[in-house]
Design brief:
It is a single chain. By secondary structure, this protein is mainly α. It has a domain of 72 residues: lambda repressor-like DNA-binding domains (434 Repressor (Amino-terminal Domain), Orthogonal Bundle), CATH 1.10.260.40. Helix content is 48%, strand content 8%. The protein has 5 helices and 2 strands. It has a two-stranded antiparallel sheet with strand order 1-2. The termini are far apart. The relative contact order is 0.16. The mean pLDDT is 82.
Length: 122
């Protein structure tokens, strides 16, 4: 699955899957659950078979018109597609709780690390 890595608090990496990958996963799962071929769905949606394959593999970002056509070909409401994508996104991106640094005494300067930037205002 293609992902974008974000560096979060404490330097921890948090991976965000690409939306096009999640959409493609849902479309492929639905097509296979219906025991339909790529050619059959592409024909019904009036898109090329290679293009639909790229969309299912998350390699192409489908327009809203293409998504609507593919969803119609699968008998799937676009709201249901988005709901499934949301569930998958929530499941994939759940991360451990964020570590909160210990409180310091009032007036104490915070610990600095290499690469930190200090901004001073007058």
């Amino acid at each position: 699955m293609a992902e974008v890595a974000h560096i979060g608090p404490g330097g921890r990496r948090r991976h965000q899957p690409l939306l096009r990958t999640l959409v493609g996963d849902v479309l492929r799962r639905r097509r296979l659950a219906q025991r339909r071929t790529l050619a059959d769905v592409a024909r019904a949606a009036r898109v090329s078979m290679p293009y639909l394959s790229e969309v299912e593999r998350g390699r192409k970002e489908a327009s809203s018109e293409v998504l609507a056509a593919v969803c119609a070909a699968l008998g799937l409401d676009i709201a249901d597609l988005l709901a499934e994508v949301r569930l998958q996104l929530v499941t994939v991106t759940q991360v451990a709780p964020v570590h909160r640094p210990r409180r310091q005494h009032p007036g104490a300067s915070p610990a600095r690390r290499p690469g930190d930037v200090v901004l001073l205002a007058a």
